[in-house]
Specification:
By secondary structure, the protein is mainly β. It has a single domain, classed as OMPT-like (Lipocalin, Beta Barrel). The protein has one helix and 14 strands; from the N terminus they run αββββββββββββββ. The strands form two sheets. Strands 1-3-4-8-9-10-11-12-13-14 form a ten-stranded antiparallel beta barrel. Strands 6-7 form a two-stranded antiparallel ribbon. Strand 11 and strand 12 form a beta hairpin. It is elongated and about 60 Å long. The protein starts with a helix and ends with a strand.
């Protein structure tokens, strides 16, 4: 009981002094590239960004927990779902299912991302910071092709470790520049999520921002070849507690 009391009186004041930021982001996105070939050997490469490059609606949410001046946690919910229709002048073998040439194919592309980040503030405090950390990302991906009653779907759920980098700096008294990135690369594939925003303080505890985001990456292994590059025009709202 004595040990619990000591821990409580040490930890609770630190938690009570912690602060939180909630960020909601929305806007439009465009497909720069979206290629898939499953299986990697024997499958047909399909560049379905040519069916419809966008724009498409998107949204995401982030929660930042500033435990103290240097230690921070971040949680991200970033869903992505695109549905496009088109034709190609050749037969398609996707996941060992055959689709006819010159007939409409519907592609349902899903790439949902769930992330948890720990990062350390190496420089600055408040609105002026340079932060570095590590992100654990769980991807929930699916690419489904359908042509009439013919359907094939490839699902993949996996864990990816990423490096997190964040830099933000005040510009005058009312503006804030914010840049952050989750990134990793290996011989089997890569993943980059890069964002740059300009935010304006609209209340003491609230910011409204506009910016650009770029999401790029994919995999090239024995089972699949898939690479995508998606660009965003974003609007976000940040609320501090």
């Amino acid at each position: 009981m004595l040990k619990f009391s000591i821990i409580f009186f040490i930890v609770f004041p630190k938690l009570a002094s912690a602060s939180f930021d909630i960020v909601f982001e929305t806007g439009a996105l465009w497909q720069q590239r979206n290629d898939v070939r499953i299986p990697n050997t024997g499958g047909t490469r399909l560049n379905f960004d040519e069916f419809d490059s966008g724009p498409f609606f998107h949204y995401r949410a982030e929660l930042f927990w500033h435990v103290n001046d240097t230690h921070n946690l971040r949680a991200v919910y970033a869903p992505l779902n695109l549905v496009v229709n088109g034709q190609v002048p050749y037969a398609v073998n996707y996941d060992n299912v055959n689709f006819n040439a010159n007939q409409d194919i519907e592609i349902d592309y899903t790439f949902n991302s769930y992330r948890l980040t720990y990062y350390y503030s190496f420089w600055g405090n408040g609105d002026n910071q340079l932060n570095l950390g590590i992100t654990g990302k769980v991807r929930d991906a699916k690419i489904q092709l359908q042509q009439g009653s013919t359907k094939a779907s490839y699902d993949n759920v996996g864990f990816v470790p990423l490096i997190y980098f964040e830099y933000q700096k005040t510009l005058g008294t009312e503006w804030l520049f914010h840049f952050n990135m989750d990134a990793a690369a290996a011989s089997q594939g890569r993943a980059f999520d890069v964002s740059a925003k300009l935010r304006h303080r609209i209340l003491t505890d609230s910011l409204l921002g506009i910016g650009l985001r770029s999401l790029e990456g994919g995999a090239d292994n024995d089972e699949v070849y898939t690479f995508s590059w998606v660009n965003y025009l974003t609007i976000d709202f940040l609320k501090s507690f």
